[in-house]
Each structure stands twice: as C-alpha cells, then as structure tokens.
Design goal:
about 350 residues, alpha+beta, 8-stranded antiparallel sheet, about 25% strand
C-alpha cells in the first residue's frame, strides 16, 4: 500500500503541515506528462523514507485543490515543495528525478543524524522570513482566510493580493541586481509574472486581511524590494517606493474606503524610517502595540505614503507574527470595539 497521502481538502493539508515535522508535497495535474513520468520516483522515495509524524509525502492535484495551489503560487507542474514546521524550505520546479532524490534523501539523513530539525537544502531553497521572529511568537500567516482578501488601488499588471502571503522567497530578492535601472519595478523581458504588488493611480494601498481564528498579533514583517535607480536611469520618479506611513485597523467587517479611513482613528499608526528597512532582505518589522491586538479577526492595512516622490508603492511579502487563537464561528466578520 502506498504511503503517499492524497490531499482532498485545504483543511486536510493544513492539518498535515501541523502534525508532521516535514511534508514533501508533489503539486501535479492529471494532464501533465512530466508529472506522470516522475511519479514512480516520488512513490519510491515515499515508500523508503516516510516516517509517521516526522516525514510525510503528499500529492496535491492542482485542478482539484485550486485554493492550495493559489496559496503557494503554483504556476508550473510538477512543483515539489518541502515544508518544515509549516514553512517552505525547498522548492523544486520541473521533473528532475536526480535533484528530487538528492534533496529528499539529504533531508532524511539530516533528520536521522540530528534527531531534530531540518535545514533548507539545495540552491533552490525558497524559504522566506525577512527578519527573525520575536522570542515566544510564531509565524501565523497560515491563519489568513485567503479567499477573503481585498486590495484597493493595486495595479492589475502585478500579482494578486494572495501573493503577498506566499511562503516562497520573493523574486525581487533573487534578481534585484537584474532589475535595477529598468524603471517601475517591472520584470525584465521574458521573466515570469511579477510576484509583488504595486499601487496604481497614486501611492496609497488598502489591504483587508481576514483570519480564520481570533489571533494575538505581535508584528507584521513587510518586505519591499523596489529596484534602485542609477545615476543614468530615466524617469527615476517612476520607480516604486517602500511604504512609509502605515495605519492599521483591527476587527473591521470589510475593507475600508480611502475617504472612510481618513475619518476613522487607526488602531495604530506607524511611520517607518529608511533605517527600519533591512538592506539585505528589504524587510521592515512593524511592531504593534500588543495590548491592542489581543483578539483579532481581521486587519486593514492602509499604506498612506512612501519614501520618496514617486506615485508608486511596492510590497513583495507580508508575514503575520503572533499567537494562534480560537477558531472563529464561520460567517460574517463582526466589528469589535468602538468606531
């Protein structure tokens, strides 16, 4: 009998990520020839290396489980993602039996020798945290209700809102040097669809983030990787900026309009300086007043302006850090507290 688990729902997949230290995931499709070609290799690895609650092999049909595929930005099949403690540590795109075997077997050997954690393996590691987690707290981004996200004033040429919460390393971090000097942060010719968002008509963005549980939110890690204009770049004012002023509203029932947000006091307003952005990762830690974010079922993040004179603001990733809470009753979000 096969030891590989076939994923039938997003809830099942989330449960497995929580119950198994490492989860090796095969994102495939029935119509994909390369997926079928590498399937026997994957089954052999599963049969040989599976360990209950330690190392689990799963298969996700991207046509049947579109929500999962969208959450992790799957655009090519097969894609193999390896999760450790619910975070992506390695991604392999394409049917490469040798690379898949080497990466998985290396992880298994590390587990056997150390008896504990795994390290990201191979040059294609896509695990992404732009900053260290505060002591005592964890990444709770997987508690976001992806289907309920709403984003206002985003340029449609760039990624949808869900990509902000993708667990993979942003492409801007990988190819920042390649995009410098090309203006507007656009991907170079022939490159994949951009995996970041940019504002459209001005520098403001309004993002609604609903959660599947009532959470304690400690920090937002915001990654922004705009290209840096050079001395001979044309139209330098068209280069996107990093966020500067951010207003955060808790427990709203829906996204706020821009005029509406101006009339409602924010739960917290933050002004980031240039020094707040880590130059290596392009990430700023937005530390919230924890006492005000103790039972949060949604956040509205209002990017008011950016650093510079451009009319564009860019965001690549957002990670939510805090503590998990009780599952909320499904249905309409209810406002908590005074307006």
């Amino acid at each position: 009998m096969s030891k590989t688990v076939v994923i039938n729902s997003a809830a099942q997949f989330k449960s497995l990520l929580s119950s198994s230290t490492v989860v090796v995931t095969d994102f495939h499709a029935d119509w994909c020839g390369p997926c079928k070609a590498i399937a026997p290799v994957y089954e052999q690895l599963s049969a040989k290396l599976s360990r209950p609650k330690k190392l689990t092999f799963v298969k996700v049909d991207v046509d049947k489980q579109q929500e999962i595929a969208q959450t992790y930005g799957i655009t090519a099949m097969p894609t193999f993602m390896i999760f450790k403690d619910k975070a992506v540590v390695t991604t392999i795109r394409g049917a490469d039996p040798k690379q898949l075997s080497e990466v998985v077997q290396k992880l298994a050997r590390e587990a056997e020798s150390s008896g504990s954690g795994f390290e990201a393996s191979g040059s294609d590691s896509d695990s992404w945290h732009g900053a260290e987690l505060p002591r005592g707290y964890k990444d709770i981004t997987d508690e976001i209700e992806i289907r309920g996200l709403d984003l206002l004033n985003a340029d449609s040429e760039y990624a949808p809102a869900r990509m902000l919460f993708n667990a993979t390393k942003p492409s801007g971090r990988k190819s920042l040097e390649e995009t410098e000097g090309k203006g507007k942060g656009a991907a170079s010719e022939g490159s994949p669809t951009p995996d970041w968002i940019e504002s459209d008509t001005d520098q403001q963005l309004m993002l609604f983030i609903p959660f599947m549980a009532n959470l304690k939110v400690h920090t937002l890690q915001i990654t922004s990787l705009p290209p840096k204009p050079t001395a001979d770049s044309e139209g330098a004012d068209e280069f996107p900026m990093r966020p500067k002023t951010i207003n955060v509203y808790s427990n709203r029932a829906h996204v706020l309009g821009f005029d509406e947000a101006e009339d409602i006091p924010a739960t917290q307003s933050i002004t980031l300086s240039e020094r707040d952005w880590d130059e290596k990762t392009g990430t700023a830690k937005v530390e919230l007043r924890f006492v005000k974010f103790q039972s949060v079922n949604s956040l509205v993040v209002f990017i008011v302006d950016g650093h510079g004179e451009s009319e564009k603001v860019r965001i690549d990733r957002i990670r939510v850090i805090g503590e998990s809470g009780d599952k909320r009753d499904p249905g309409k979000l209810e406002k908590v507290g005074e307006d």
